Amino acid sequence: MQAFLANFSLRPSCYHCPVKGGKSGSDLTISDFWGIEKIAPELDDDKGCSLIIAHTDKMMNWLENNSILSEIPIKEEPFRSNLSYYTSPAQPVNRSFFFNQLIKNGFHEAWKNTVSTKLTDRVLRKIYQFL
User: Three-state SS for 52?
Assistant: First the structure.
């Protein structure tokens, strides 16, 4: 989970995603609704909330006819806390090093070597960048 949250274990295409901002051509986008506690606290139960974004009239009509959903009368508000809708994550500088170590030593050692603050590990990572 730490590797995922630090953007090390994402697919290479994730760092330059061409379909951000609703450009995928899909009818909808489903995501975690980050910031729900500020935007609609009455819907925040601390168990998680999903955000469904309709990109087409067809999907908007379908969503309006299904009572399983709560509608928040807002347009751009959810995106203030969901910036990943518009932007791709930055690729970590040591991602190649991490995967090299993963192949050689397994996950635990790879992660330990990648995030270690020991001088020898920092020097090893710096040297790897220039190879």
Answer: strand
Q: Is 65 helix (H, G, I), strand (E, B) or coil?
A: coil
Structure tokens at 60: 């908007």
Which range among 47-61, 62-76, 104-118 shows the weakest confidence by mean pLDDT? 62-76
- Tokens at residue 78, please? 């959810």
Q: In the chain, where does DSSP find H-type helix?
A: 2-5, 36-39, 57-64, 95-105, 107-115, 119-129
Write the CA distances from 8 to 22, 33, 106, 117, 125, integer angstroms: 24, 23, 14, 17, 14
Who's near 21: CB < 8 A, 6+ residues apart? 85, 86
The pTM for the full model equals 0.66
The one-letter code for the residue type at 50 is: S
